[in-house]
Amino acid sequence: MSGVFVSSSGDDGFPGTVSFPVRSIGVAAALAASQSLSTVYISAGVYPGNLSLSGRDLALLGGWNHQPSGWSRNCSDDARSQTVIVALDGGAAIAVADGGYRIRSLTARTGNGSSTPGAADAPGVSRVGLAARNADVTLVDVSVISTDGTSGGFASPGAPGSGSLACTGVADCQAGMSGTPFFTGGLSSDGGRFSIDGFVPGDGDRGANGVEGQNGTAGSPGPAAVSCYLGCGCVANCVSSGPLPQQAPPGRCGCGGRGGFGGSAGRGGGASVAVLAVNSTIRADYSSLTAGQGGNGSVGGPGGTGALGTNGAPGSVVRCQTKPCRVVGGVCPNAACYYGNGPGDEVYIDLQAPPGGRGGSGADGQHGGSGAGGPSVAVVLVGASNLILDGGTVLRASDGGVGGPGARNGASALIQSW
Predict the structure, then answer these.
(1) What's the whole-model pTM score?
(2) 206-221 pLDDT, tens per residue?
(3) How far from the centroid of its chain's Cα atoms is residue 39's Cα?
(4) Which of 77, 167, 223, 235 is the most buried (most CB within 10 A)?
């Protein structure tokens, strides 16, 4: 038997021989490449870790028994269930690329997965048992099991409107109307898709920001006075100007409130795929390829609340003196000059316009669109890929994930081509 040997009781510091097997399949594959060997023998046991192989021709042969007396084939009907590769994270249990690979008598399974949705504002995580890219893969007496894809993450609500518009309050006054609210949400997803990079979950659209409120109505002109005296001061002749007409400037209008921000998009659920082939050929003999459930899509987030418009402000005050200047205590510049006849005798009125109208409120942001459910597919063929099955191979798919309101549910299919 020429090759590298792997046993769950081995040690990765060993040379990988019959008497001194290594413990990890990845270490064994690297040793095989360095020694120009083409076969890795794997004894019964559970081998945790995501196995990634590239650029070689290699046979992974499970179903062996490692005893102190030596190695022997396990010829029982359940031999493949006794040699198990279990992924530790969301990646494929086995990923192969750019070469020819023969896999026999073992089980490859993705991580246990979780019913917990993905991170906030993130799509669900997809699960893939075996991923092949530009490869020729033969499966003999192999079970590939993909656990459930996870649901799309919680969609964050939109932030509230940030204050009011910048306005002069004089020349840019309007009708003071509030922003028009949205009566529908953002577009829901029409489904995810497979690509050369794997499954792209179907996220919904983010909600649009709310419409800003208008500036308030213009203030009315201020009151007027016909006879106002101006310029009283003890100069050479203490003469005031006037009587002159004066009018207070109009009140200032309030500024419109800003619209709320749109809610985040609902996120698509992850896919569950037993075998994903990209420009690859897959041959399966007496094997079982099983996909779990697709992840559910999440509902889009609500839009943020629009901000209130600001109140209008009264016009500035204009003081109108109603008596002319008088000299008190001699002759200017040594005397004093007053409106009226002397100190305490000033007579005036204040002219001020009422405030302009309040600015309109900003509209609430639009609700985000829902995410689609993820698919459950036993075998996905992307690009120039082929699937060759014998009569003893079984394909199984579960239910696709449920989409959020208005979004598609995930597909359920044994074979799907993209």
Answers:
(1) 0.83
(2) 999 999 999 999 999 8
(3) 44
(4) 167
